[in-house]
Design brief:
about 170 residues, alpha+beta, three-stranded mixed sheet, 5 helices
Protein backbone atom coordinates (compact mmCIF):
# COMPACT_ATOMS: atom_id res chain seq x y z
CA UNK A 1 0.00 0.00 0.00
CA UNK A 2 1.26 3.46 -0.88
CA UNK A 3 0.94 6.08 1.82
CA UNK A 4 1.60 9.73 1.13
CA UNK A 5 1.71 12.11 4.07
CA UNK A 6 2.70 15.35 2.35
CA UNK A 7 1.30 17.76 -0.22
CA UNK A 8 3.34 19.29 -3.04
CA UNK A 9 3.00 23.07 -2.63
CA UNK A 10 5.38 25.78 -3.79
CA UNK A 11 7.74 23.28 -5.42
CA UNK A 12 8.27 21.33 -2.20
CA UNK A 13 6.65 18.58 -0.19
CA UNK A 14 5.00 20.00 2.94
CA UNK A 15 3.02 18.59 5.84
CA UNK A 16 -0.69 19.36 5.50
CA UNK A 17 -2.50 21.57 8.02
CA UNK A 18 -5.04 18.81 8.63
CA UNK A 19 -4.37 15.29 9.87
CA UNK A 20 -7.31 13.97 7.86
CA UNK A 21 -6.57 11.33 5.24
CA UNK A 22 -8.36 9.95 2.21
CA UNK A 23 -8.34 6.21 1.67
CA UNK A 24 -7.81 5.16 -1.94
CA UNK A 25 -9.97 2.08 -2.52
CA UNK A 26 -9.48 -0.43 -5.33
CA UNK A 27 -12.70 -1.00 -7.26
CA UNK A 28 -11.47 -4.55 -7.99
CA UNK A 29 -10.96 -5.72 -4.43
CA UNK A 30 -12.67 -2.97 -2.44
CA UNK A 31 -9.51 -2.90 -0.30
CA UNK A 32 -7.64 0.23 0.70
CA UNK A 33 -4.62 0.44 -1.63
CA UNK A 34 -3.30 3.83 -0.56
CA UNK A 35 -3.74 6.89 1.58
CA UNK A 36 -3.29 10.56 0.78
CA UNK A 37 -3.67 13.71 2.88
CA UNK A 38 -7.02 15.47 2.77
CA UNK A 39 -6.03 19.05 2.03
CA UNK A 40 -7.70 21.62 4.24
CA UNK A 41 -8.97 24.98 2.96
CA UNK A 42 -5.76 26.51 4.37
CA UNK A 43 -3.68 24.03 2.35
CA UNK A 44 -5.65 24.89 -0.76
CA UNK A 45 -5.15 28.62 -0.14
CA UNK A 46 -1.39 28.03 0.20
CA UNK A 47 -1.32 26.01 -3.03
CA UNK A 48 -3.27 28.66 -4.95
CA UNK A 49 -1.03 31.44 -3.61
CA UNK A 50 2.10 29.46 -4.50
CA UNK A 51 0.79 28.81 -8.02
CA UNK A 52 -0.07 32.48 -8.50
CA UNK A 53 3.36 33.52 -7.24
CA UNK A 54 5.08 30.99 -9.50
CA UNK A 55 3.21 32.36 -12.51
CA UNK A 56 3.68 36.03 -11.63
CA UNK A 57 7.32 35.81 -10.53
CA UNK A 58 8.63 32.58 -12.00
CA UNK A 59 10.38 32.06 -15.32
CA UNK A 60 7.45 30.55 -17.27
CA UNK A 61 5.57 33.69 -18.39
CA UNK A 62 8.67 35.38 -19.77
CA UNK A 63 10.31 32.25 -21.13
CA UNK A 64 10.50 32.13 -24.93
CA UNK A 65 7.92 29.86 -26.53
CA UNK A 66 10.60 27.51 -27.83
CA UNK A 67 11.91 26.91 -24.30
CA UNK A 68 8.39 26.32 -22.98
CA UNK A 69 7.89 23.82 -25.79
CA UNK A 70 11.12 22.02 -24.88
CA UNK A 71 9.99 21.79 -21.24
CA UNK A 72 6.60 20.42 -22.30
CA UNK A 73 8.32 17.90 -24.59
CA UNK A 74 10.53 16.75 -21.67
CA UNK A 75 7.41 16.24 -19.54
CA UNK A 76 5.83 14.18 -22.32
CA UNK A 77 8.97 12.04 -22.59
CA UNK A 78 9.08 11.54 -18.82
CA UNK A 79 5.47 10.31 -18.85
CA UNK A 80 6.23 7.96 -21.75
CA UNK A 81 9.22 6.55 -19.87
CA UNK A 82 7.00 5.75 -16.89
CA UNK A 83 3.97 4.58 -18.88
CA UNK A 84 3.85 1.07 -17.36
CA UNK A 85 4.17 2.35 -13.79
CA UNK A 86 1.56 5.06 -14.34
CA UNK A 87 -0.82 2.62 -16.04
CA UNK A 88 -0.55 0.23 -13.09
CA UNK A 89 -1.38 3.03 -10.65
CA UNK A 90 -4.28 4.28 -12.77
CA UNK A 91 -5.72 0.79 -13.20
CA UNK A 92 -5.49 -0.01 -9.49
CA UNK A 93 -7.17 3.28 -8.61
CA UNK A 94 -10.03 3.36 -11.11
CA UNK A 95 -10.41 -0.26 -12.19
CA UNK A 96 -9.76 0.21 -15.88
CA UNK A 97 -7.89 -2.46 -17.86
CA UNK A 98 -4.18 -1.71 -18.07
CA UNK A 99 -4.38 -1.47 -21.87
CA UNK A 100 -6.92 1.34 -21.51
CA UNK A 101 -4.83 3.07 -18.84
CA UNK A 102 -1.85 3.09 -21.19
CA UNK A 103 -3.76 4.23 -24.28
CA UNK A 104 -6.58 6.33 -22.79
CA UNK A 105 -4.71 7.94 -19.94
CA UNK A 106 -0.94 7.94 -20.40
CA UNK A 107 -0.61 7.91 -24.18
CA UNK A 108 -3.40 10.44 -24.75
CA UNK A 109 -1.75 12.81 -22.25
CA UNK A 110 1.58 12.54 -24.05
CA UNK A 111 -0.16 13.21 -27.37
CA UNK A 112 -1.69 16.41 -26.04
CA UNK A 113 1.61 17.51 -24.50
CA UNK A 114 3.43 16.72 -27.74
CA UNK A 115 0.87 18.76 -29.68
CA UNK A 116 1.38 21.77 -27.44
CA UNK A 117 5.17 21.36 -27.62
CA UNK A 118 4.92 21.46 -31.42
CA UNK A 119 2.50 24.40 -31.26
CA UNK A 120 5.18 26.50 -29.56
CA UNK A 121 7.15 26.32 -32.81
CA UNK A 122 4.40 28.06 -34.79
CA UNK A 123 4.39 31.74 -35.67
CA UNK A 124 1.11 32.34 -33.82
CA UNK A 125 2.52 31.05 -30.53
CA UNK A 126 5.80 32.92 -30.88
CA UNK A 127 3.97 36.18 -31.57
CA UNK A 128 3.22 37.02 -27.94
CA UNK A 129 4.36 36.14 -24.42
CA UNK A 130 2.06 34.24 -22.06
CA UNK A 131 0.92 37.41 -20.26
CA UNK A 132 -0.71 38.73 -23.44
CA UNK A 133 -3.30 35.97 -23.71
CA UNK A 134 -6.57 37.88 -23.70
CA UNK A 135 -9.00 35.03 -24.01
CA UNK A 136 -9.25 31.29 -24.10
CA UNK A 137 -12.07 28.94 -24.78
CA UNK A 138 -11.11 25.41 -23.94
CA UNK A 139 -13.00 22.15 -24.25
CA UNK A 140 -10.87 19.06 -24.35
CA UNK A 141 -8.86 18.83 -27.53
CA UNK A 142 -10.66 21.77 -29.12
CA UNK A 143 -9.43 25.17 -28.11
CA UNK A 144 -9.74 28.66 -29.50
CA UNK A 145 -7.10 31.16 -28.45
CA UNK A 146 -6.98 34.89 -28.97
CA UNK A 147 -3.61 36.56 -28.50
CA UNK A 148 -2.61 40.18 -28.63
CA UNK A 149 0.54 40.67 -30.66
CA UNK A 150 3.20 43.25 -29.96
CA UNK A 151 1.54 45.55 -32.50
CA UNK A 152 -1.71 45.56 -30.56
CA UNK A 153 -3.59 43.47 -33.09
CA UNK A 154 -5.53 40.36 -32.23
CA UNK A 155 -5.10 37.01 -33.90
CA UNK A 156 -7.54 34.16 -33.61
CA UNK A 157 -6.91 30.51 -34.17
CA UNK A 158 -8.96 27.44 -33.56
CA UNK A 159 -7.87 23.86 -33.54
CA UNK A 160 -8.98 21.59 -35.08
CA UNK A 161 -11.86 23.56 -36.53
CA UNK A 162 -13.81 26.75 -36.15
CA UNK A 163 -16.51 24.80 -34.29
CA UNK A 164 -14.35 25.22 -31.18
CA UNK A 165 -15.51 28.84 -30.99
CA UNK A 166 -18.96 27.63 -29.98
CA UNK A 167 -17.72 26.23 -26.65
CA UNK A 168 -18.50 28.25 -23.53
CA UNK A 169 -15.87 30.60 -22.20
CA UNK A 170 -14.02 29.20 -19.20
CA UNK A 171 -11.67 32.09 -18.55
CA UNK A 172 -11.75 35.82 -19.24
Amino acid sequence: MQIFDTLFIGNEFVKPESRDIIDVVSPHTEQVIGQVPDASPADIDKAVAAARDAFDNGPWPTMPAEERGEAIARLSTALQNRAEELADLISSQNGSPKSWSIMGQVFSATMVLGGYAEYTKTRLCRSAPVRSVVGCRCAGPRSAWRRASSLGTCRSSSWPSSSARRWPRVSP
